[in-house]
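step: validate -> pass
step: tokenize input -> pass
step: predict -> running
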Amino acid sequence: ACSTCHDEAHFPNTLAVPAVKFPSGAVLTFGDGASANLCMECHQGRESTVSVNNAIGNAPDDTVDTSLRFINPHYFGAGATLWGDEAKGAYEYTGKTYLGHHPHVDAGQTCVTCHDAHALTINTQLCAGCHGGNTDPETIRMGTTDYDGDANTTEGMYDEVNTMEALLLTAVQKYATDTAGSPIAYNTNSYPYFFIDTNGNGIADPDEMKSSNSYASWTPRLLRAAYNYQWVQKDPGAFAHNGKYILQILYDSIQDVGGDVSTLT
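step: predict -> pass
step: emit ->
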């Protein structure tokens, strides 16, 4: 409704939101009264590094803990992705260093710079101004680093992230079978998303996607990686919101569950 964002008593003024508190406890802002702060009130996810650590406590990394459940970060946490390490929406591994907010913020760009506030469409002409006339965000990249190890240094950041996502799911499934002792399958459209892969085919089949078959053999290490996989799935624009931060998150998740990162950057 209009009143979600607009002050009805002083229409068309937007509601005054000087800063936004994120699930990690961080308080962030595009500036006092910036209308894009309103976007972050909802688009921040509902979990964080802090809540995942609180749930795990001191449990051993590779021991199945029956008290653990999958922690769903919720949907479209773009605000937290955009602010990276400052928001800590995705799970950040202890001892690692992560990028903060995306350089777009330094350029004065906010949610409503790139997205139409009402239609939510993307202002692709803004992309073109800085990216050589390119109006397709999925094909944009800066630099020639081969992050995903596929020897393609011209594909967009979108494809770099997609390949890493697939590698993480493969690593999660191998770890679940080999270490947690129970095969796991995922479906992005069926809560609670991770299920016991009863036939071991790597796919969440219709007869497996039911609450009574939700995955239950969580170890702390598996939970952290699964949380990050879900984070990226539920922020489909993560490649643009803060692509390099997301690649760091994916790389560390793959590495932590024993995946091969020898060809990755």
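step: describe -> The mean pLDDT is 96.
step: cleanup -> pass
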